[in-house]
Design a protein that fits this description.
The chain is an alpha/beta fold. It has 14 helices and five strands. InterPro entries: DNA_Rep/Repair_Clamp_Loader (IPR050238), P-loop_NTPase (IPR027417).
């Protein structure tokens, strides 16, 4: 389906099939069956939260649901949410972002046009007024809104969306994608039906990576990245295709050394500080947080509860620091150098303790 041109978003992975184009949704059997049954019986809630970790298929499920609603492709007794028909006009319009019955809200481009903003702003939510004010193709046509992810809504945007959820337009469906369980206003959650999407099985992840990489993916590599994926196909693809394995090895070599290696730290910080390679910075950030969480878990299992609490507090502080670095456009290389030094000191203290 190379003839389709999908609009770029803040989390587009070059060379990887985006959710709009993904025909086969792996896993989530119960969730797909629930949605198919609700559609067939006319009992679909007007506002849904698809909740689960990043990169497990929530966006793909949302676009499958949108295709089913806007094409009328729902039959009683279907048993599962139908896959989109790639030959249909509805599918083509959805992929190209031109279907009048679908509005896909994600982070907008920044004012310079060089990247994307760090949040979904209230201006994006205001687009809904025009969207719902347009004349539908038919009196019984659906209007579908996908917010990806709802965690990125800033406060003003979240409050503006809440007003629409409180008084939804007729025949409208809001699908809010939520990474994890936090970051949403309780008042928004209370007006939505929450579907919890579980992490993917290693076999499903390996199949997804194999589909994306083709012959370049051997069995040993698939097993390794599936295990490292931690239930997320996106994460596994970052390891398999975007240098995640090499970055993990470099980070571990730095952290395991008895003394901080300045040269190794600078090599890692050069990657994190490269503004032309956001994806590698994101991989390094995830690796840092993963290491902290694994250390905290290990300490807790060994009964070192005070140490586990100290590492967990460091985890939260580093996440706050990452958000602040993004918000205030800090020097990325210097910020990551400082982070690496602090992390090495923390883990050295853990090993010596």
């Amino acid at each position: 389906m190379d003839e389709y041109e999908v609009p770029e978003t803040h989390d587009t992975l070059e060379g990887i099939t985006p959710p709009q184009l993904t025909l086969h949704l792996r896993g989530h059997v119960a969730e797909r069956a629930f949605l198919a049954d609700a559609l067939a019986r006319g009992k679909l809630h007007h506002a849904l939260i698809f909740e689960g970790e990043r990169g497990i298929g929530k966006a793909t499920a949302a676009f499958h649901l949108a295709n089913a609603l806007l094409s009328g492709n729902v039959a009683p007794g279907e048993g599962t949410l139908p896959a989109p028909d790639p030959g249909s006009p509805v599918f083509r319009q959805i992929v190209q972002g031109s279907h009048p019955g679908l509005l896909y809200l994600t982070r907008p481009r920044n004012d310079q046009g060089t990247g994307f903003k760090q949040a979904i702003t209230v201006d994006e939510i205001r687009r809904l007024q025009r969207f719902f004010g347009m004349t539908a193709a038919g009196h019984d046509s659906w209007r579908v809104v996908i917010v990806d992810p709802a965690n990125d809504l800033n406060r003003n945007a979240a409050n503006a969306l809440l007003k629409l959820l409180e008084e939804p337009p007729p025949r409208s469906v809001f699908i809010l994608l939520a990474h994890g369980t936090g970051g949403l206003l309780p008042t928004i959650r209370s007006r939505c039906q929450v579907l919890k999407f579980a992490p993917l099985a290693d076999g499903d992840i390996a199949a997804i990576v194999s589909d994306q990489l083709g012959p370049a993916a051997d069995a040993a590599m698939l097993d390794r990245v599936a295990a490292l994926g931690g239930g997320s196909a996106r994460r596994a693809l970052l390891f398999a295709r975007f240098g995640g394995l090499e970055l993990q090895e470099a980070l571990e070599a730095y952290l395991e050394a008895p003394q901080p290696d300045v040269a190794k730290a600078h090599k890692l910080a050069d990657v994190a500080g490269n503004r032309k390679s956001e994806i590698h910075r994101d991989i390094l950030r995830e690796l840092v947080l993963d290491r902290l969480r694994s250390e905290a878990t290990r300490a807790a299992r060994q009964g070192r509860l005070r140490e586990a609490e100290r590492i967990a507090s460091a985890d939260m502080a580093i996440q706050d620091r990452m958000r602040m670095a993004d918000a205030y456009n800090l020097d990325r290389k210097q910020d990551f150098l400082t982070l690496l030094a602090d992390l090495h000191d923390l883990l050295s203290g853990t090993r010596s303790g």
